[in-house]
Design goal:
By secondary structure, the protein is an alpha/beta fold. Helices cover 44% and strands 15% of the residues. The strands form two sheets. The chain has a six-stranded parallel beta sheet with strand order 2-1-3-4-5-6, with helices on both faces. It has a six-stranded parallel beta sheet with strand order 9-8-7-10-11-12, with helices on both faces. The chain starts with 7 loop residues before the first strand and ends with a helix. 47% of the residues are buried.
Length: 351
């Protein structure tokens, strides 16, 4: 079935929710753009690296007559190579395209590969990022990067005020060493004697680097296996259910940008305790709508959790302020910015 090139766009990113359980921002974006009348092509839903590369390259080239402009998500590491491949084909096809800088480790990647990063950003029609953190640190490669925040479907995340929090914690992320999931286990081991009923739910798929197995082994070795539930990858629609069952959200990552999982937790009114890495200090207001602690420090994270659970009125303040903060990321506020972005790209296509 042919599509109209006057209202068709290509999104290159992670469309893997059907296989790994994580529902990415670009999957949500595809549906929203279709709801306002754009035809959307996507790549890729292939999880294996070689199959993913092949799908991105072949879709971008073989469907070049079916779209006028594209957006490519950019991560560090091997994911950066996928973005390079997509952009190479887009240039060969003569298509205008935007880059969405999403990887929290991109500044460090850029220090190791400055020419590659500079070349990729330089050739794009537009470059956006969801965080001030990446905007500031990547402007050494291009000084007109636009801020385009990650959005939420706020109606999917019912708010419950945490005025009397319990020791029920939740962690939502992929199991990968960058996200340091074993820190969550160390935290539970440290706090179990203070809060005999403490429980942790860890929600997320296995990224295959051994982190899930290491986390499960740590739970066994530290004697907290009965306090930790591993759900595996789950559909995006079930995330609010797991958030509703907990009162404290912990984010243990060593690198970050503007994690949607944190915004989801804030929208639901959970009290967020996060490492102060990457874009987190630029995203949240420490001591007002979240608490930030140094990375890799279970004692500091434990102290923060104890404040939430024990300090009168503090959890209520964090919960109320978190929900108010997350409200500004609702889709109705963000979607018009994406529509304008593609209008700009289509204007370039017509010149």
């Amino acid at each position: 079935m042919s599509t109209s090139t006057t209202s068709s766009v290509l999104l290159v990113g992670n469309f893997l929710s059907g296989k790994v359980g994580n529902y990415s921002v670009c999957e949500d974006l595809a549906g929203k753009l279709e709801s306002v009348g754009l035809n959307v092509l996507t790549a890729s839903n292939q999880a294996a690296r070689a199959a993913r590369l092949l799908d991105i390259v072949t879709t971008t080239w073989s469907r070049r007559h079916d779209y006028t402009a594209a957006n490519v998500d950019v991560y560090s590491g091997l994911g950066f190579g996928l973005a390079e491949a997509a952009c190479f084909v887009l240039q060969a096809a003569g298509k205008p395209y935007a880059l969405s800088l999403r990887g929290g480790n991109l500044p460090e990647f850029g220090r190791r590969w400055p020419r590659r990063v500079g070349r990729l950003l330089r050739h794009a029609t537009v470059v956006t990022t969801p965080s001030d953190y990446l905007k500031q640190r990547m402007e050494i490669y291009r000084n007109d990067i636009q801020l385009l925040p990650n959005p939420l479907n706020l109606s999917r995340y019912p708010f419950h005020l945490r005025d009397k929090p319990t020791a029920k914690l939740v962690w939502v992320r992929s199991f990968h060493h960058l996200y340091n999931p074993t820190l969550a286990i160390q935290l539970i081991a440290d706090l179990q004697h203070v809060y005999p009923d403490i429980q942790l739910t860890m929600v997320g798929p296995d990224k295959g680097d051994g982190s899930l197995q290491a986390t499960q082994q740590a739970a066994h070795d530290l004697g907290v296996s009965d306090r930790v539930q591993f759900t595996g990858g789950i559909p995006k629609t079930q995330i609010p259910d797991y958030l509703a069952q907990s009162d404290v959200f912990i984010n243990t990552t060593n690198f970050d940008n503007t994690p949607v999982s944190v915004l989801e937790a804030m929208a639901c009114g959970l009290c967020v305790v996060s490492t102060d890495v990457g874009g987190m200090p630029d995203l949240v207001d420490h001591n007002q709508n979240a608490l930030l602690v140094p990375p890799g420090d279970p004692a500091a994270m434990g102290t923060a959790v104890r404040r939430v659970l024990d300090e009168d009125g503090f959890a209520e303040k964090l919960s109320r302020n978190a929900h108010a903060f997350a409200s500004q990321f609702d889709w109705p506020a963000i979607l018009p910015k994406w529509v304008r972005l593609f209008e700009t790209l289509n204007e370039n296509a017509n010149h």
